[in-house]
Amino acid sequence: MKDTDIKRLLYSNLLCIFSVFLSIFIPSLFLDNFSILETHLTWLCTCSASVTGVNLLLHLVVKPNVSSRRSSLSHKVTRVLKCCIYFLLSCFFLHIIFVLYGAPLIELVLETFLFAVILSTFTTIPCLCLLGPNLKAWLRVFSRNGVTSIWENSLQITTISSFIGAWLGAFPIPLDWERPWQVWPISCTLGATFGYVAGLVSSPLWIYWNRKQLTYKSN
Amino acid sequence: MRLGSGAFAASCVAIEVIGVAIFIRGFFPAPVRSSAGPEHGVETPAPEPMAGASSNWTKLPSPLFNKVVIVLIDALRDDFVFGSKGVKYMPYTTYLVEKGASHSFVAEAKPPTVTMPRIKALMTGSVPGFVDVIRNLNSPVLLEDNVIRQGKAAGKRMIFYGDETWLKLFPKHFVEYDGTTSFFVSDYIEVDNNVTRHLDKVLQRGDWDVLILHYLGLDHIGHISGPNSPLIGHKLSEMDSILMKIHTSLLSKERETLSPSLLVVCGDHGMSETGSHGASSTEEVSTPLILISSAFERKPGDVRHPKHVQQTDLAATLAIGLGVPIPKDSVGSLLFPVIEGRPMREQLRFLHLNTLQLSKLLQENIPSYEKDPGFEQFKMAERLHGNWVKLHLEENHSDILLGLGTKVLRQYLGALKTLSLSLSTQVAHYDIYSMAVGTVVVLEVLILFLLSTPHVLCRKAELDVPLLSPVFSLLFYMIFLVLSAIHVLVCTSSESSCYLCSLPWLAAGGVMVLVSVLLCAILSALIRMVIDGTLLKKRAAHPGSGWSEVDLLLLLGTVGHVLSLGASSFVEEEHQTWYFLVNTLCLALSQETCRSYFVGDDCEPQHYFQVEEQGCSDILASTLLDSTSYNTPEPVRTGKGASLSEAQGSCKWWTVLASPWLVLICCRLLRSLNQTGVQGAHRPDLSHWLTRGIIEARFVYVFVLGILFTGTKDLLKAQVIATDYKTRTIGLWEIHSGLVLLAALLLRPHNLPVLAFSLLIQTVMTKFIWKPLRHDAAEITVMHYWFGQAFFYFQGNSNNIATIDISAGFVGLDTYLEVPATFLTVFGTYVGPVLWASHLMHFLSSEASNGPALSRACFCYALIGSVPVATYIVLVTSLRYHLFIWSVFSPKLLYEGMHLLITAALCAVFTATDQTRHTRA
């Protein structure tokens, strides 16, 4: 593992963070009275779109997983289709989990679903970009001692921190402060976003600090 | 002295119960109450005392005022009227206070300075304690004697407009009413207009005796923008114009009827500098109290400064003013200026009535009442009064009579003051000393627990408790002496009564011994730990297998829950915390099952699936038939190595993977069962239980007792004959099923799904999670505890006293019997935790392969039960002036105390069942 790798990781992560910030500032140029809290759903959509876009861009440009396998066009198309299906499935899966956690079943369906979308944007899409629609690889990355590169390590950290952020974001909901951000699912989406950003920031730093100890099996 | 960790834990929890009991006793001071119930008949008022013969004036004096209007302005601070704000915004009131026929006071409110207790204080004259809340569990109706009740009994027509709290406290007392809600804090205009709009009509009609107006707007403004907001000025001007309207209308009516009327302006509590209230700062407790009536004579140029009085004094004054008996529990004394203008005989009569009522209250609450200086003064005054009346009736109109009368008056006033003071100090304060002692005991036990945790969890279950050596050590005696000295010092110096001091010396000494013994035990445990620590360091080179995610979650979840108890909203919504934690636990378990199935971790011991044949059968069927499957416990478990070959059932791997999800779905269903308010809609009333099913219920009781009896018999047999663990497991299973049966009988019909789901989840978790994944005893204990807590809330409980299902106490009884009813209610409330604990016991004893699991589990259960209590006690002590201390934190404290008691009982049972192995080993 070289320092240049870490640098590349840092830059790509900064780009992801930049995309999150972009989603806050760009829509206010086009839309009147846009704010994260008031028009939360719009922000969710733009944030999800911009993060997805940047991730795809990174995937195409940087290509951290140099897949040596040659593949035909049809193979590629099925791969993309599979990715889409995986993404949708993960959205539904997360939605079900939110409902199991106590989100309202019938009211606020759109809000809950968009929360699922943004959380899977933060978690599933990087996984899909990096690992492809390959469940075995996912399981490997998210099991103990399963990572094989700094990219996967960073992926692990950001995904887990997004989940933890969303989890922690649910805590202020029962408090009686009556703040606008305590409404479902705003605190959770904000928590997930903060978790994602924190993961993006901390993962290169963590990898840099621990670069001596980190030994990857295949590298 | 060697103790099993189970026995150690059980005794520690028992000590902790004592500590919590002392704390609770100090936290909830016993209220001053008259023993006579309020449902008295017509009681003859005390006659005028007279030396020699009996007086001819035995009836109650006639009312002083024809009409009484009480204007209660929420959060009216004294300086809003008497200060610069009053001069600026309330010119009419200021004029009345300074020059008009009025008496003004600064009335001191006792904390908690919250509306409902303050209304109670104003109307009953007593200081409401928290015990009152428990006393009338479900109904907020004020049961104590109060002015409103007396007024109604005397046939007064009362009208009320304002805060609907009054309507809850006094239902059916008012002939006409309109409640406003304090729910919408941001509204400070409509809420008052809704009161004022009735005013013109009512003042014109004049067919009433008492009119009560409660204005909420000022309080709302305080909550929104604080006491310095410009809105306050507007509101005060509005109030001033309303007072002017009422007063002029009263004066014009008086000209027609020629009898005086009274206008009372008061606040229920003040407002702190931030605009809130509830605590005991000067701004929050000082409220104005202005009595306006043409009956009060005032010479021009008579400048009076508002005197400081107690808020409770109003009740007695109002009662005298309306000509009704003074409320029995009132600790207030009559505001003397009100009766100053009356003839001497009447003045003495009123003072006598008030003093007599107070001395009666004193007699009933203080055993040594005869030594009280106030009581002595009262006796003296009564005697003098008798002489005076005799002289008076002998038509002796001399200066002697006046002189003697003034003397009696002064004697009465002194007696009143002393009596009122000694009564109100009974209830006014938290008993900090008892609270501190209780906290110390609880914290010592907790530290002892924490110190011995590594010992119990990492090594053997036997614990060396150094009890004998400290008892004979010098340190122990020194600590004991110091504590006793402190005790004597505190008890002799403190003015307010305190529970520990009122205990006999032997009991107090016992508590001191307990404290010092615990302290010595902690010290020796610490020393031993330091010594052990040096030994351990050598072995610490290779860290243990490390913490799995589930372990981490269990630890963090417990810590997080404990910390969340500091916020009132989290206490109110504690069920959400538990649901959240249990859901997360299920997800973590699902992740663990996934990982152990798909990826064999090489750093951990292999988790092979060990699903028995019967595990493949339908889950529901197995729930129904689980008694049979448990009654034939499987043969001795094969070793770990052979488990793979045995696992033919692994074809059904999906059951293992699906089981956490099944549990999750069950939890979601149960949660929505309660959210939809089912318990409110289909609440069967007591009569339902009383009229139907008594015979059936008793029939079930016989069965339950039979099952419990056979279970206990099996346990004893296992203990005496010491055959093998099979008998014990069967016995535990019988006890568990007996408890399930009892729960099914006691729970409300709509809660039966909770019980069924509980059994289902227990079965699923046992078969597909705990057995195959081979969790540690400690982990399983914590999981059982979590599920028990979640089910406590699933069955419809909350941290509010009102949700306790008292009807469970009446099942199968035709009359109220205190002991069985209490037992049944407690069991009905804590069904969830108890059932899960009994399942834990049965499960661990059936897993006989791992040695001291049961005593280890007992230790863990005690530890995890006592951590929240200890933390909560500290939190409550520091939050004792919080706004919600009475509505949110105090009920939770009672729940925690009760839960600890149940934990202690469970731990005792744990230890008792575990004795078998010890006697054999």
Question: What is the gyration radius of chain B calculated from CA atoms?
Answer: 34 Å
Query: Main β-sheet of chain B: number of strands, strand sense, barrel status?
Result: 8 strands, mixed
Mean pLDDT of chain A: 85
- Total beta strands of chain A: 0
Q: Which chains make the largest contact? A: A-B, 19 and 25 residues
Shape of chain B: elongated
Tell me about this structure.
Chain A: This is Phosphatidylinositol glycan anchor biosynthesis, class F. Chain A: InterPro entries: GPI_biosynthesis_protein_Pig-F (IPR009580). Chain A: Keywords: Endoplasmic reticulum, GPI-anchor biosynthesis, Membrane, Transmembrane, Transmembrane helix. Chain A: The chain crosses the membrane at residues 9-29, 41-62, 83-106, 112-132, 153-171, 183-209. The complex is a heterodimer of chains A (219) and B (921). Chain A contains seven helices and no strands. Chain A is mainly α and 219 residues long. The mean pLDDT of chain A is 85. Chain A has helices at 3-30, 40-61, 73-101, 109-131, 135-141, 150-169, 186-209. Chain A is globular, with a radius of gyration of 18 Å. Chain B has 921 residues and is mainly α. In chain B, helix 34 packs across helix 41 (885-920), helix 35 packs antiparallel against helix 39 (831-846) and helix 37 packs antiparallel against helix 39 (831-846). The model of chain B is unreliable at 38-42, 540-544, 601-649 and 676-691 (pLDDT under 50). Classes of the chains: A mainly alpha (219), B mainly alpha (921).
Concise synopsis of the structure shown:
Chain A is 70% helix and 0% strand.
Layout: helices, strands, pairs:
The complex is a heterodimer of chains A (219) and B (921).
Chain A: H1 3-30, H2 40-61, H3 73-101, H4 109-131, H5 135-141, H6 150-169, H7 186-209
Helix pairs in contact in A: 1-2, 1-7, 2-4, 3-4, 4-6, 4-7, 6-7
Chain B: E1 2-4, H1 5-27, E2 68-73, H2 78-82, H3 84-89, H4 91-98, E3 102-108, H5 115-124, H6 131-135, H7 147-153, E4 158-163, H8 165-169, E5 176-180, H9 190-196, H10 199-205, E6 210-215, H11 217-225, H12 230-257, E7 262-267, H13 282-285, E8 286-293, E9 307-310, H14 313-322, H15 336-339, H16 344-365, H17 373-393, H18 399-427, H19 432-458, E10 462-464, H20 468-471, H21 474-493, H22 499-502, H23 505-539, H24 549-564, H25 568-572, H26 574-598, H27 613-616, H28 619-624, H29 626-631, H30 643-646, H31 653-675, H32 678-681, H33 686-691, H34 694-721, H35 725-746, H36 752-773, H37 777-794, H38 818-829, H39 831-846, H40 853-878, H41 885-920
Parallel strand pairs in B: 2-6, 2-7, 3-9, 4-5, 4-6
Antiparallel strand pairs in B: 1-10, 3-8, 7-8
Helix pairs in contact in B: 1-19, 1-40, 1-41, 5-14, 11-12, 16-17, 16-18, 17-18, 19-23, 19-40, 21-23, 24-26, 24-40, 26-31, 26-37, 31-36, 34-35, 34-41, 35-39, 36-39, 37-39, 37-40, 40-41
